[in-house]
Structure formats: structure tokens, C-alpha cells
What does this fold into?
Amino acid sequence: MFIAHGEYQVFKRDQLCIIESRGPFNAEMVCKYSLEVDQVTQQMPETWGQIVIMHQDSLFTPQAEIEMSNAIIARRERGLLVSAVIISNSQVHMNIVAQVSNIYERAGISYAFFDDTGGAEQWALQQLSAHSESTTALYNFQKTLVV
It folds into this structure.
């Protein structure tokens, strides 16, 4: 077991979990971080999204990447629908994009990369709204069939 490496802050705003982080990250940090995200998101609505702001060279060790994939899968099962990612001030931007893409694709989560929080938040909220509208339409259609 190693000392956790990396920094993060997590908070909730409406149906979004906002995460600010600075890496690189090891598996110990991902486990600690995942527990805190779980606590913050316990009171989330049925479906929710997250905004992830990754500062500097926020790379994952191979084990940390696996742990993060598992954590995202668990969040998906608790209602995580979308993730908007901002990579800020990084020398290894494309490496981070590749790792983060692998994580979300393994978990089956819709994701997109942005340059600013405004665009990220707007996209995440639009995705959540569209999902809510399609779920409501499906429910109403099924209700009509039953009647």
C-alpha cells in the first residue's frame, strides 16, 4: 500500500457533482476519492451528471485507471448519466484524453471534453434534460398502452 497521490475537491450543485482534481493519481487516491464522491452523491436525483476539471498533468497509474473505471461503473449503477471533462493547463493533454476516454467507454457513460466550465455545465444539463424528457415520453407511451 502506498501513500495516496493526487488532490481533489468534490461538491454537489443541483443534479451535478463537481470535481476539481490535480494529478497524477495512484490507486490509493482513487479509492479515497471514490468514497468521498459516493458520500457527496448519495442525495442525487435518479439521474445525475458530473463536471470533472483536471488540472495540470492528471494522469492515472495503470492500477488507478482500473480502479477509476470500476468506480465509474458503480456510479452509473447509482444514476450517473453523463460526464463533462475539462483538462486545464496540461503538458500531456492527449494522454489524459486517451485515459479518460478509456475509463468512460469501459463504463458506458456519455462524456465530452470542454475548454471551459460554462460549456461543460450547459452540455451536461442538456444531456440530463433530454434523458428526462425521453424517459417521460416513454412512460407516457407505456401508460397509454396499458390503459
User: Anything to note?
Assistant: The beta strands are 7-13, 16-22, 48-55, 80-88, 110-114. Residues 117-146 form the longest helix (30 residues).
